[in-house]
From TrEMBL, chains A, B:
Gene: cimA
Family classification: Belongs to the alpha-IPM synthase/homocitrate synthase family.
Pfam families: HCS_D2 (PF22617), HMGL-like (PF00682), LeuA_dimer (PF08502)
NCBIfam families registered for this protein in UniProt: citramal_synth
Pathway: Amino-acid biosynthesis; L-isoleucine biosynthesis; 2-oxobutanoate from pyruvate: step 1/3
Catalytic reactions on record: pyruvate + acetyl-CoA + H2O = (3R)-citramalate + CoA + H(+)
UniProt cross-references to InterPro entries, sorted A to Z: 2-isopropylmalate_synth_dimer (IPR013709), AIPM/Hcit_synth_CS (IPR002034), Aldolase_TIM (IPR013785), Citramal_synthase (IPR005675), LeuA/HCS_post-cat (IPR054691), LeuA_allosteric_dom_sf (IPR036230), PYR_CT (IPR000891)
Enzyme class: transferase
PANTHER family in UniProt: (R)-CITRAMALATE SYNTHASE (PTHR43538:SF1), ALPHA-IPM SYNTHASE/HOMOCITRATE SYNTHASE (PTHR43538)
Protein name: Citramalate synthase
Alphabetic keyword roster: Acyltransferase, Amino-acid biosynthesis, Branched-chain amino acid biosynthesis, Cytoplasm, Isoleucine biosynthesis, Transferase
């Protein structure tokens, strides 16, 4: 089997409905470009018109289009008793400038009469008119049949009529949506089988294809999607990390490996699927949600082994305790007790920085030990490779001293309803000179950052080009209240390169300070390497 | 259908394998008594002999037995080339004093030859001897066929032989274990069907019954268990909250409602199932793991609704957007307030706080407008219901003044490699008196929190009972670097109730301060309401 199966990602629309998740325009664009690099065929970008942020998202993609993926605009049918051509919501969809539009309509008679408060006939007209309108404007149409399974159980004839109406009006895909997430796999199997059968021989303007869109309210979103695929559906809708309203949508990070690696469908290619773990973690990072360590395939614990016999068995023959090789989806086997696996990680990582460590070199073990100690304290180097590079240089004795920190003071002050003032002083030794500088900021960390830059600027004028691109805070042990440990990630840039550093402390200012300082240091290091490279090139 | 289905809980054994989960003896006993009160028929308590804590667990239950549940001891077959009667591991099982023993054995030829390094014939002898030994000691036996599905795929005849050996030796249940979690629902259906068929007509000492034990490595543990049940299996093994090694076991909090409320099996009774949400949260509390808000059926968000049309539809007819009434499993419908909120959300939410707003009252529109303004500034009330309640009271003119803030100062200080010191002073007016207090902390926010409590304590001694349970920080526009806006969520508790408040500022200390202050204020408000209620009750 190498049948193609079309993956349709709705992280940016249905996924963003997850309680506690809120994506900025920039977040949405960054996620879209990651999904594009993965080669996901369809990316649902949002509902332009319902949300000003979504309008801008589509405009930005018109300026700089995606490479591999089709971005899709999502909307509902026209309002009851109106004309599609006059519907402002539909005009907003056209201005999104996508080739494809996903239109959702009502399948369940109850939703038509109670929800929309209109007649069953008018609902059919709404579906037909809206699709014909989009077709007349050159758009290709995916039709999402909302509440499909509940609707079909309640009134199969009417439900089928809505789908047939959509197909005849020019929809190319009919998508069965389990909107409330209440359906179980065996029901999916039976209903999808009956429905696809009912379409045999129907004359439609386009060859019909079917899709599935499931939610996890019964804990079976992934199983439900697979059940539909086995009945002949060839589009699967879901979200990265299963984000979505209530209990979430079908998790594409689970579905794609199941469909591609176990069932042999062609979803995103064997090379792209190796990026799945990375993309999963990237999206949780951008969404600022803690990654689910126990997520199938891509979770940190998905291929963890503890206990002696088990571990040696895995090492003899991974097949005995692993359903799949972790590297096929870019994840790693983790041996929880032994540091053997850790060492090869460190060696591999060092290599990415151009540092060739020897397995038998005691420094390698020293770095590994330091890394473990720091990770126990809450540091995380997965996303902070610049800090990891500095750590290795420290252990190797090759870390250059650009400046020595002597201390800082931060002061915040607020009276009644006034704005909160922040003032910082820093003391730094640079090239033998003690420098004391002070600066204000709109918060304690920006004040500290400003004071540090003032101190360093005369010695390292290139610092003027460094920018703090991103600043993220995660509370590590939230249960300890305001005494909790804080991890700060700072992303810096010099215009050409970007790098991330990490700091950890129970004091959020101290943690931020560590990350900001290493960010500046690493920028200076990069600058210096570039200069030495350019000297080599010149000579 | 009201067929009985036997639920078998292994939270205390397989669940405890979860990375990051560690249960004390007392934790295990508390969880066992909760499961007992739920009426779970079988509770696997551990592997006595492999673990001293587990030995004590069974002894404690001999002193004070469970009321409804059978506690079961878990162990493996005897060692190769030895005698069951002389095996110390098996003696330890007898001393646990249970009526039932669950014995696991190898089904997969690869595991016999490579893992155990013995012959296929010796493995059969190990199964037979061990079961006969337990039978001779008056124990009833459940046989867990480890790696069943992989074993059956690799060598169906041998796999079947292991099971037939177990049945003939006196096992009453044969349990199909998907140990690596790699099997998909349609494979379960097919294999279970074939296997049960293969046992038709086999003569065994007891009427045979079948069970299923699944893991979530493919994201289908629940679907897999259901598939087996539909083929005639009538014991389901799983864990509370799906805890377990790697990606976890089948989640009983998902399975029980699916099996009992959707498929009509008789698992734990209609009254007991209403305690499921409570038990789920209890177990996560004891395990000291954050509850999964997005868990099916029992999660905080499982019946949450946001978006205007949606909310008004749910209120008209819950069936339209809920696959099941939340109260059937002891959960609650939640109306979430967010920037997609319409007036009906605000009205519905106000009602949950006992505030009856009128749709035509200008105050309702004023609250909605304020909500939108604040959300534009970065406030988010989805998770901060206490701050939303205070906002409504403010608009209605019923917010009580417990104290008035006059200002604060925070000072952090670090020299060289020393620890970072934090000191805060606050000025508050309480009942006409100006109070100035100072405190230290291991970070600026804990120092502020301590100073505030010191100031309020003499006037409101109940503040001593308030705890900060959780502290979350989100950088809203990370792209602005250290000048970014910060949103802080603080969860407080008074021992009985929990509430969350929010603060937003470009200054992280100011944002934290807002949330901490509202947290204290709301605690005082709750205390006061309780007192006034108890006064009413007394009079």
């Amino acid at each position: 089997m190498t049948q193609p199966l079309w993956i349709y990602d709705t992280t940016l629309r249905d996924g963003a409905q997850r309680e506690g998740l809120s994506l900025s325009l920039d977040d949405k664009l960054r996620i879209a470009r990651q999904l594009d690099s993965l080669g996901i065929p369809f990316i649902e970008g949002g509902w332009p018109g319902a949300n000003p942020k979504d309008v801008q998202f589509f405009w930005k993609l018109q300026e700089q289009p995606l490479v591999h993926s089709e971005v899709v605009a999502f909307c509902s049918t026209r309002r009851p008793n109106s004309h599609a051509e006059e519907d402002d919501n539909l005009k907003a969809i056209l201005s999104a400038g996508t080739r494809w539009v996903t239109l959702f309509g009502k399948s369940w008679d109850l939703h038509v009469t109670e929800g929309l408060q209109t007649t069953l006939t008018e609902n059919l007209a709404m579906i037909e008119d809206t699709i014909k309108f989009f077709r007349s404007q050159g758009r290709r149409v995916i039709y999402d049949a909302e509440h499909w399974f509940d609707g079909y159980k309640a009134n199969p004839n009417y439900a089928l009529e809505t789908l047939k109406t959509a197909a005849k009006a020019g929809a190319e895909w009919l998508v069965f949506c389990d909107t409330n997430g209440g359906t179980l796999p065996h029901e999916i199997t039976q209903i999808v089988r009956e429905v696809i059968q009912a379409f045999k021989g129907l004359e439609t303007p386009f060859p019909l294809q079917f899709g599935i869109h499931t939610h996890n309210d019964s804990g079976t979103a992934v199983g439900n999607a697979i059940a539909a695929v086995l009945e002949g559906v060839n589009m699967v809708q879901g979200t990265i990390n299963g984000y979505g309203e209530r209990c979430g949508n079908a998790n594409l990070c689970t579905l794609i490996p199941n469909l591609q690696l176990k069932l042999g469908y062609n979803c995103i290619g064997d090379e792209a699927i190796k990026k799945l773990t990375e993309v999963s973690r990237f999206v949780s990072e951008v969404a600022n949600l803690a990654p689910d360590d126990h997520a199938p395939f891509v979770g940190l614990s998905a291929f963890s082994h503890k206990g002696g016999i088990h571990v040696s068995a895995v090492q003899k023959n991974p097949l005995t305790y692993e359903h799949l090789p972790p590297e096929t989806i870019g994840n790693q086997r983790r041996i929880v007790v032994s540091d053997q696996a850790g060492l090869s990680n460190v060696l591999a990582k060092a290599r990415t920085f151009g540092i060739d460590l020897d397995r038998n070199n005691p420094t390698s073990r020293k770095i590994l030990q330091q890394l473990k100690d720091l990770e126990n304290q809450g540091y995380q180097f997965e996303a902070a490779e610049a800090s990891f590079d500095l750590l290795m240089r420290e252990a190797l004795g090759t870390r250059k001293t650009f400046f020595t920190l002597k201390g800082f003071q931060v002061h915040c002050d607020k009276s009644s309803d006034e704005i909160c003032h922040a003032l910082a002083t820093v003391k730094v030794t640079i090239k033998g000179q003690d420098i004391l500088e002070a600066a204000e900021g709109n918060g304690p960390v920006s004040a500290l950052d400003a004071a540090l830059r003032k101190a360093l600027m005369n010695f390292y004028p290139m610092i003027a080009e460094f920018q703090l691109r991103d600043y993220k805070v995660r509370i590590l042990d939230g249960g300890s209240g305001t005494s909790a440990k804080t991890r700060v990630l700072v992303e810096s840039s010099n215009g050409q390169q970007r790098w991330t550093t990490v700091g950890v402390s129970t004091n959020i200012i101290d943690a931020s300070y560590q990350a900001v300082v290493e960010g500046l240091e690493y920028g200076l290091l990069l600058q210096q390497q570039e200069q030495s490279v350019s000297i080599v090139t010149v000579s």
